[in-house]
Amino acid sequence: MQTLLVYIAQSLTASAPLCLAALGGVLSERSGVATISLEGYLLGGAFAAAAAALASGSTLVALLAAAALGAALGGVFAWSTISLRANAIIAGVAVNLLAAASTRVALKVLYDSASNSPPLPIARASSAGMGAAALTEALLAPAVLLVPLVALAMRWVLRETVFGLRVTACGEHPEAARSLGVSVPRVRAVALVVGGAVAGLGGAQLALFQHEFVAYMSGGRGFLALAAVILGRWRPLRAVGWALGIGALQALEATLASRPNAPHALLQAMPFALTLIAVAGRWGRARAPAALG
Amino acid sequence: MPAVKPRWTVAITAAAAVLATLNVAIWLAGSSPREILPRLLEGTLGNAYGLGQTLAKATPLLWTGGAVALALRARLFNIGAEGQCLSGALACAVVGAALPAHTPALLALPLALLAAALGGAAPGALAGWLRGRFGTHEVLSTLMLNGLLAVLTTWLYAGPLRVGQQVHTREVVAGARLPMAQGALSVFRGSALNASFLLGVAALLLMAWYLRETRGGITLRALGASPGAAEALGVDRARATTRAMALSGAMAGLGGVHFVLGVKGYAEQGVGGGVGFVGIAVALLGGGHPLGIVLAAALFGMLAQGGLVVNARVPADVLNLAQAATILAVGAAAAARLTPRRGA
């Protein structure tokens, strides 16, 4: 029972970055731009959160900084794909490399380290928390609290607001949107920048939970989040559901890590393998935004 | 479909992006570009050792750049060259070490090269098959395979395949080793340049010939130019997709040869990493032309080596920033001639 509660806690902790990145991905992709740059947003968000926490000691400032850097990277992505009309996949690769290289340069310049930041000056929850205590702790992590809020807000925006309907129109039929007087580039730019900010918040969870920034700490989570977007058919709540599932797979490794003979490699490989199988299995029935490219 | 040629606009944009980013980044890192840039040129092109190192850094990029370019001709986005290079290096190291100790080079080398090609082709073919059979977009499947292969190789090199205290695989047999440039030309003493550079250039020429002259190559290009028309002419789209991705994966897998059969003689954690994504930039900048790819690979090799040259003064990753900026610039300049399939 204790182990189960700890496992649930670790699943939530592991899922939060995936959920937020997936929500950012839903907004971006619904506007018709394929977004593999989620990986870069997570990494950038993690670094910004760590640097801001080190400078200010405040979790709130860390979250705001993560969202800001995510938005900035989303802005670079938007500028490249919309203004310069670069291919979205290539621009996404570039943004990911940009995030990887610039966080490493900043690590060196700010903290004179090639691999990680100093530990964050934020109250560390007692790591010995067992059972219910661990679960409470996980649930109270700011990024975990944000997931349901952002998911419901995203759903409301996409379904009920003029902006949300315009985003969907730009993704499904940009010509029609244009003929109705909607500025497709502007709507997409806003979607990409806000999407970057939301995904950047996911990165904050990575750094805040680990109490430091580590180079390349996103570790492919952005790509897994993109898979969750696709598996969730570009809908916020479903994408979050898939992200929770993938996070639960990732948490298996953390939960079983202390046991002797735990098959670490197998457990680490599982999220990627099972996600690939899930995507292959469901793709035939998925329906992507028509103008996604 | 006209042959895709390197365009001067693309090259000039790239050069401007590299220079601008370098200047700003070096300045931000607290150094003077006027001091750093001459060192960078001197250390990468100014002497035989530096040139050798630049070409050595360019070698895996010839292969991964070629791999991405090949898939692009079929309008497939192989962003899995990263993982395919890892699995190529793994297969090559395992086969190269498993051969009897005195296997003659005439037999050992082709077998090890074949292993690298097959090691890379396997994940490529899987992604192609998934695309043809289930419609799974190759971008997503290759990204998942990248993650999977990174985990797998890390585990194998640290665990089952390690030799004693060293965290690397057993050395490949002497017959499977590629000649080093320093053996032939003493001016390259100490540099990692080896025969896989020449093999890479040859492979790019072979690839150009394959695309232009052979039935398979023409099918592949038809698939890229007009999938519907290709199908109407009797091309099995699923099979052609699988084959294109397998060939692309084989090229990427051979990128691992530079490390395993050339520089190191074994595989270890990180061998073959980081060259797949840069391969995308090389393919774009090179415009799918063999000479273009060689020049683009040399440029990125220069950035990689340049990072090490100036590392004492500015962080090496400043040069990786320049790489990212180049991809952004080239991606924009090449936008007009790149129209990938719709639907992610």
Give an account of the 3D structure:
The complex is a heterodimer of chains A (293) and B (344). Helices cover 75% and strands 0% of the residues of chain A. Chain A is an all-alpha fold and 293 residues long. Chain B is mainly alpha-helical. Chain B starts with 7 loop residues before the first helix and ends in an 11-residue tail after the last helix. Chain B is globular and about 60 Å long. The longest helix of chain B is centred in the middle third of the chain and has 30 residues. In chain B, 70% of the residues lie in helices and 0% in strands. Chains A and B meet through helix 4, helix 10 and helix 12 of A and helix 6, helix 13 and helix 15 of B.
C-alpha Rg of chain A (nearest Å): 19 Å
Binned, the helix content of chain B reads over 70%
Mean pLDDT of chain B: 86
The separation of the N and C termini of chain A measures: 47 Å
Biggest beta-sheet profile of chain B: none
* pLDDT averaged residue by residue of chain A: 89
User: Which regions of chain B contain 5 or more consecutive residues with pLDDT less than 50?
Assistant: 1-6, 338-344
Radius of gyration of chain B from CA coordinates: 20 Å
What attributes characterize this protein structure?
heterodimer, A: 293 residues, mainly alpha, globular, B: 344 residues, disordered N terminus, disordered C terminus
